[in-house]
Amino acid sequence: MGINKKNALRQEESEKLNALLSGLREEEARVFREFIEQVLEQREDILAQFDPKKSCIRIEESNADFYSHQIDIVWKLLLTDSRIRAVDMDYGWERIKLYPARPEHEYAPAATNDEKHYRRAALNQYFNSFSETVEWFEQDESEKCSITIEKSITLNDEDFAFFSGNIRQDAPFLEDSGCGQPADSDGTFHCVLVKPQGVGHGILVCKDVKNGAFYSGYLPSLEWFEQGQDIMEIRNKGMDLL
């Protein structure tokens, strides 16, 4: 978008806001101004704790006591910061998580395997971390979709721990990995399996370049994926899933 077009859009939004404010009574304008000041102050308090060297910034407490609609506004304002990919906030303000878009972390060269695998698994658009994919692991066949694993990427323990805290990050090993393909017309998703060394489980990652959607899911093992086994059967065989 050109500078002139951006300026025109800003001018248009400014005029809309001025028109809205001009229709308020003095007391209404004061309440509205105080509300905005509180929201902006809360946003700045949160952003002051942003650390680009972390895959996920956990903020455990907040002194502000806002209502849910104020939390929603702060959440939307935080997402306007280009450094942040996702925000997780609870309504009690006991926990806030910021997920950087591209954390400052130097990944070691990852081992890759280009062998493709085809089966069915469940994906979700709302997971931010590996623990969430495990917690909400879905085996119901009706929730599964067709999956093509384009590539398997194995990380060392330190790098997998860093990546698993924020699976939406723009990790360098995902670039040109095959996970950026849009879903096929038949609904098949093209994913990359990211896993730690020495274990079978991992994370399925898929980024739809057409609409910007991000999908992910937990994979207990390639054996489970290819054979469609029940998770309990694998556990009974003594496989370490976690």
Descriptive account of the structure:
This protein is an alpha+beta fold. The chain has two domains: 3-100, no CATH class; 111-236, no CATH class. It is built from seven helices and nine strands. The strands form two sheets. Strands 4, 5, 6, 7, 8 and 9 form a six-stranded mixed sheet that branches. A three-stranded antiparallel sheet has the order 1-3-2, with helices on one face. A hairpin with a 5-residue loop joins strand 7 and strand 8 (202-207). The N and C termini lie far apart (46 Å). Residues 229-242 have low confidence and may be disordered.
What string, H for helix and E for strand, traces the elements in order? HHEHEEEEHEHEEEHH
The residue ranges in which pLDDT falls below 50 over 5 or more consecutive positions are 229-242
The Rg value, from CA coordinates, equals: 22 Å
Outline: elongated
Alpha-carbon distance between the two ends? 46 Å
| DSSP strand tally | 9
Beta percentage is: 15-25%
What is the count of distinct domains?
2
The main β sheet shows up as: 6 strands, mixed
- Mean pLDDT score: 82
Structural class: alpha+beta
How helix-rich are the residues, as a percent range?
Answer: 25-40%
Query: Number of helical segments?
Result: 7
